Amino acid sequence: MFQKNFILALAVLTGTIIGAGIFGIPYVISKSGIIPGFFYFLILSGAVLLIHLFFGEIVLRTKEKLRLPGFAEKYLGEKAKIIVAFSTFLAITGALLAYIIIGGDFLKIVFSPFLDISSFYFSLIFWAILTFFIFRGIKLIAPVQLLMSIAFILIIFLIFFFALPQINLENFILINPENIFLPYGIILFSLIGWPAIPILSEIFESPDGKRKIKKVIILSSLIVVFLYFLFILSVVGVSGQNTTKEALQGLLPFLGQKIIMLGALFGILAIATSFLILGNYLKNSLFYDFKVPRPFPAIISCGMPLILFLIGFREFIAVVGFVGTILGVVEGVAIVLIFKKAKTLGNRQPEYSLKAPQVLLYFLIGIFILGAISQFFFKF
After folding, report:
1. From CA 87, how far away is CA 184, in angstroms rounded?
2. Which of 72, 115, 119, 124 could form a disulfide with 80 if both were Cys (CB 3.0 to 4.6 A apart)?
3. Residue 343 lies in a domain
4. pLDDT, tens digit, for every residue of 212-250?
């Protein structure tokens, strides 16, 4: 029984981390070079791993079942809750916008042999179908999400298998100073999975089970980084400077229509699942946490990303980079500050406790703040 819960928890966290961000990583690596890319992965994967571990301890030190805005209110005060809640709204809206953009690109790949429609209209179709389910209040079943995550991972291995004979290491450039800051937000976005951390505590009900949360977080991070490197090697190694912003279209001349269509199809399903999860989360948050009367929560959660898309925010890389930056500088810093407070103000004995020196906490805060500053000066 415990082993089953461990696998489920591992799948939930890994599936939460892997999302739309993975499709943007090959493009930014191809433009910035492998040296900046490796540097960002090294620094940010370590930083995000620590944030995940910090958040896990925060959850275990708190008797109440809360989410990040609730933890911010409990340990940092009402103002912190407002800031974190605003960041959450902005980040989820941006993530939904990114899903609309890339969903249209993937639909075009799948249906281009049959329909001559631009990505713009495919994006509108993608939005309309998923908005219908959000208004209906669809209940997502965990096993379906688990199967989608497994299928998505299998597709990464399948793409690597077909790409392997055509990988050319000369397609990787070492460094391009003009795009040296480009990977930060995208890589950060692709590594974040802390919204799933409280769910891990609910999966492991017993104290013995909760002690495994630390192992789940560490193992999940290793799996994600390995899969990302596999995907980067497959895409950039084959398409090089022809790597497209959604990764798959640039592989078409090399791997053929069928394998790319299969990858795009599973990409659509994975993104659709994430869209429904985040859309329903935002709708319910507006209704329960902020008392917004129906049907306005659904209208706001689905309408805002559509409005942004229609007025011209259609650059996938720019949107994902912005969302990753916001999540890092606001929510990442908030988790560090909450972790520091929870050490003394927590009302529960945690199953694991990290010894984090003050200098490490300030270093993490510095990474997120400096990264955010770099993005303001870098134009996608």
Report:
1. 18
2. 72
3. yes
4. 999 999 999 999 999 999 999 999 999 998 898 888 888
Residue 54 in domain: yes
Q: What Å distances lie between residue 52 and 85, 113, 204, CA to CA?
A: 19, 43, 16
Question: Looking at the domain assignment, is residue 310 inside a domain?
Answer: no
CA distance 53 to 62: 15
Would you place residue 141 in the very low, low, confident or very high pLDDT band (cuts 50, 70, 90)?
very low
How far is 101 from 119, CA to CA, in rounded Å?
A: 8
Token reading at 331: 């929510």
Q: How far apart are CA 283 and CA 88, in angstroms?
A: 12
| 380: confidence class by pLDDT, cuts 50, 70, 90 | very low
* Alpha-helical runs (H) found in the chain: 2-17, 21-32, 34-60, 68-76, 78-111, 119-136, 142-163, 183-191, 197-203, 207-210, 213-239, 252-255, 257-284, 296-310, 316-326, 333-345, 358-377
In what helix (H) or strand (E) does residue 364 lie, and over which residues does it extend? helix 358-377
Residue 325 corresponds to which tokens in the numbers above?
């930056």
pLDDT at residue 1, as a whole number: 46
Q: Which domain holds residue 22?
A: 2-100+140-254+323-377
Picking from 182, 129, 136, 122, the residue whose alpha carbon sits closest to that of residue 309 is: 122
Tokens linked to 41:
């992965």
Three-state DSSP class for 306? helix
Q: pLDDT tens-digit profile of 40-68?
A: 999 999 999 999 999 999 999 998 878 78
Q: How many domains does the chain have?
A: 1
